[in-house]
Amino acid sequence: MKFLLVTDLDNTLVGDDEATQLLNQHLQSKRSQICLVYATGRSHASTCELISQKQLLAPDYTIAGVGSEIYQNATLDLDWAEYISQNWDKIAIASLAQQFKQLKPQSLTEQNPWKISYCLEPEADNSSILQELQQKLTTSGLAAQIIFSSNRDLDILPKTSNKGNALTYLQQHLQIPSDTTLVCGDSGNDISMFEQDVRGIIVANAMSELLAWHRKYGTTNHYLAGSACAGGIMEGMNYFWGF
Ligand code: GLC
Ligand code: MG
Q1: 139 and 111 together in one domain
Q2: How confident is the model at residue 1 (pLDDT cuts 50, 70, 90)?
Q3: CB distance 186 to ligand 1 below 6 Å
Q4: Ligand with smallest separation from the Cα of 49
Q5: Cα separation of 200 and 218, whole Å?
Q6: Residues 179-198: pLDDT tens digits?
Q7: Are 62 and 41 in contact (CB under 8 A)?
Q8: What's the pLDDT score for residue 213?
Q9: What is the pLDDT of residues 22-60, one digit of tens each?
Q10: Structural domain that includes position 152
């Protein structure tokens, strides 16, 4: 039987180099029992750079661009791409978002056919912009979701695609049950993972938007770790899986 470990990278698996290496060794010793998935906001290219820079284990799958892409090694999952392409009108959504001057487009390397990403100016009134943008998308009949992370990053994705939906797609594909699936994260783009019927670890250094979600919706399936980053993952694995 396999365990499915789905972890965010920045400020979750990565952030405390010593803890990352300790966890790596631990995972390596259980490698044949674990299906390892990295779920990140980064592009696939930037994920590969981080893996080599931080000497991370090679994952079985990568959920990149906040769930907009799924890779097995370097191969994009085309079934997922086709599924999330339905009712997704990137050009219309981008031209609507452009009307919001407080939204600064992120670099081209972070955009992909199913992900439009901006940075919100620090002094902007976050909640009213998010609300107004969502409202405009809805009244224009554009199917999209907005994901806000780290009080700065704003991603617009197809309604069907986020980290949580991508992980559930993989879980079904691999036929791994909920009680042996564990997700780990620290920020807003991880919330959709905690919303699935799985166990979850929120690392001690989590951002305010994830902690606020946990206060409101957290259940016994969600473990608030006492340690930051990879140390928190280690703690939660032991709590849920006993190893
Ligand atoms: C990563 C991505 C960025 C995204 C952010 C939050 O930093 O590079 O495009 O906005 O995650 O999801
Ligand atoms: Mg993160």
Answers
A1: yes
A2: low
A3: no
A4: 1
A5: 10
A6: 999 999 999 999 999 999 99
A7: no
A8: 98
A9: 999 999 999 999 999 999 999 999 999 999 999 999 999
A10: 87-158
Share of the chain above pLDDT 90, in %: 96
Ligand 1 centre from 154 Cα, in Å? 8
> Which atom of ligand 1 is the closest one to the Cα of 106?
9
Of the residues 40, 47, 108, 153, which should be mutated to test ligand 1's pocket, given the most ligand atoms within 8 Å of the CB? 153
CATH of the domain at 112: 3.90.1070.10
97 and 152 fall within a common domain: yes
Beta carbon of 44 within 6 Å of any ligand 1 atom: no
Q: Are strands 75-76 and 69-72 parallel, antiparallel or unpaired?
A: antiparallel
- Spacing, Cα 41 to ligand 1 middle (Å): 4
Sheet holding 34-39, edge to edge: 75-76, 69-72, 61-64, 34-39, 3-7, 181-185, 199-202, 222-224
Arithmetic mean of pLDDT over the chain? 97
Tally of domains within the chain: 2
Q: Is 41 in the pocket of ligand 1 (CB under 6 A)?
A: yes
Residues 8 and 125 in one domain: no
Whether residues 102 and 168 fall in one domain: no
Compute the distance from residue 8 Cα to the ligand 2 centre, in Å: 6
Q: 175 and 61: one domain?
A: yes
Please, what's the largest Cα pairwise distance for the chain?
52
- 54 with 151, same domain? no
User: 113, 128, 158 — which closes off a domain?
Assistant: 158
Ligand 2 geometric centre to CA of 105 (Å) = 20
CA distance 202 to 210: 8
Ligand number nearest to the C-alpha of 9? 2
Per-residue confidence at 124, pLDDT binned at 50, 70, 90?
A: confident
Give CA–CA dist 149/119, Å, rounded: 10
Pocket of ligand 1 contains residue 69 by CB under 6 Å: no
pLDDT in tens, 137-175: 999 999 999 999 999 999 999 999 999 999 999 999 999
